[in-house]
Design goal:
about 270 residues
């Protein structure tokens, strides 16, 4: 009986050490940085291709792709990306999300420029790909204020929508809910929900990289500021609300923001 309890204590201690290692990956180790940058570039490419491509194909096909389809596709794509590469880079895919994680102290500031560059690169590459296929059709899927809505209204909507998105991401990353289906479903579902009612107002971008890319390639940056200022302000508000709701940042939040490649490697070496 004593041997049985001793063995159980040893197993419990070993599991505790493994959890601790998983919760504190050495994200400053540059060994996997190229993988993280590639993941953010490729993930943002896929997201922007779907988000901008929906408007382009709708215009090219005479409306075969409906507004509902256009707003559902990016949410489903984000869900898939979180599943297949969330453990590599954290699947930010959005400069506003990277900023929010850094402000929340879940993400090192020294990594922010690389992530933002990768996201912008992925977005621009996606729009260049679409332009090569379809030309300048449907304003290249640009996000613009609706014809019946003012610039101020569109800006306010982007601020509020991004605050909600950041709360959804930070909230599902703060504990065990970021493992498995809940985080991906919550974030993807929020993007779909926001687009279903707010796309006619502002385009429901919530992402500077998604909006900057088509504006750059079509050569019209006159409205881009809305989709930079709005998400940045929304990220600040979302982080402030997360502090009110949850208090200090958690190790689980850092693991979700930074990926777990280093932790996975350390666990493999101990196995």
């Amino acid at each position: 009986m004593k041997k049985y309890f001793h063995k159980n204590r040893q197993n419990a201690a070993q599991q505790g050490r493994m959890v601790k290692k998983q919760a504190t990956p050495d994200f400053l180790d540059p060994a996997h940085e190229w993988r993280r940058i590639f993941a953010e570039t490729w993930g943002t490419f896929l997201l922007v291709m779907v988000a901008a491509g929906g408007g382009i194909v709708a215009a090219k096909s005479g409306g075969a792709v409906t507004l509902g389809m256009q707003v559902a596709a990016p949410g489903l794509m984000v869900m898939a990306i979180i599943y297949f590469m969330g453990t590599v880079s954290g699947a930010h895919l959005n400069p506003a999300v990277t900023l929010a994680f850094a402000l929340r102290r879940n993400f090192p500031w020294c990594r922010v420029p690389g992530y933002v560059f990768a996201q912008l690169l992925g977005g621009v590459a996606a729009v260049l790909f679409l332009h090569a296929l379809f030309g300048i059709t449907g304003t290249l899927g640009a996000t613009l204020p609706g014809s019946n809505f003012s610039i101020g209204t569109a800006l306010a909507i982007e601020v509020v929508l991004t605050a909600g998105l950041v709360n959804t991401i930070l909230g599902t990353a703060s504990g065990a809910r970021n493992i498995g289906s809940n985080g991906a479903i919550a974030v993807g579902g929020y993007i779909v929900l926001a687009g279903l009612w707010a796309a006619p107002i502002s385009g429901a971008s919530m992402n500077p990289a998604r909006s900057f890319a088509p504006d750059l390639i079509r050569g019209d940056l006159s409205m881009t500021w809305i989709y930079v200022v709005g998400p940045v302000l929304g990220a600040l508000i979302g982080v402030a609300f997360e502090w009110i709701l949850k208090g200090k940042p958690t190790a689980a939040g850092s693991l979700a923001a930074q990926g777990s490649l280093d932790a996975d490697d350390s666990v493999k070496q101990d196995a």
